[in-house]
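### Sample
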Amino acid sequence: MSAVTTPRTDTPTATTPRRRTALDWRIRFGALSLIWGFSFLLIKVGTEGYAPFQVTFGRLLFGTAVLAAAMAVKRERLPRGARTWGHLTVAAFLLNALPFSLFAYSELTIPSTLAGICNATSPLWGMALSLVALSEDRPTRRRVAGLGIGFLGVLTVLGVWQGFHGLDATGTLMALLASLSYPIGWIYVRRTLAGTGQSHLSMTGAQLLLATAQLALVTPLFTTWPSHFPVVPLLAIAALGALGTGLAMLVQYGIVAEVGPTTAQMVTYFIPVIATAAGVAILGESLSWSTPVGAVIVLAGAALTQARPRH
């Protein structure tokens, strides 16, 4: 559930030949857009019955279970080496434990529609950071313009001319920090774990396992055991983990392997649209004109930052 420069594929992988499955990739692409778009709604429903850390822990637990089952079916083993596990621990924090928790906390005070749009700023943060941290990412006029346009869209969403009236500053900041955490994590992974030769499934499974362990340690310190277990929020957490985290990663990896990351990353531009539609239609969240207009500007800027020069 993230807007991505190369969507969730910066986790180091072995070279994988393109493959085709019985289900057309366009159908899987649409399903992935829906799953990640609805994830913000599921977070909102989950936090109505459980503490944010509990929502995140449940999400990671169910997601890890799905990947563990996939590894068992494919007879994949967890990666080896203390160095690899050390770097995966940091990646798990930056790409899973931290952003998932921040989004859960943010939706206590902001609508799921706003959280989904904040998520779409990840390519903008990634572009800005890569210009500093990755020497191979050279700035171009088009990409710098996209960066400026994108952040203009963020200001439009927030209604800066109204002094951010009606928005919870803390919740909005948490959502933006969650979106910033993703590209920081991708850059870290790219610098430390690229070329390990491990399979994508093995590395991602280990990463989610470590993130689950991190939340297992943190959650009891900041929350109390629920006195009762509301069914609907619990089902939302289970769907968020099994579908929005575990299954979504498997589907996305299949799309990347078949049609490449450039096409797969287009899912980024559907997520805020679906998140907004779901929040308004199902949760009855209000929507001012600046939200969709700003979202369009954000996505236009993000698209420009992803443009590559033609060869």
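The two ends are 32 Å apart (CA to CA). This sample (DMT family transporter) is used throughout the tutorial notebook.
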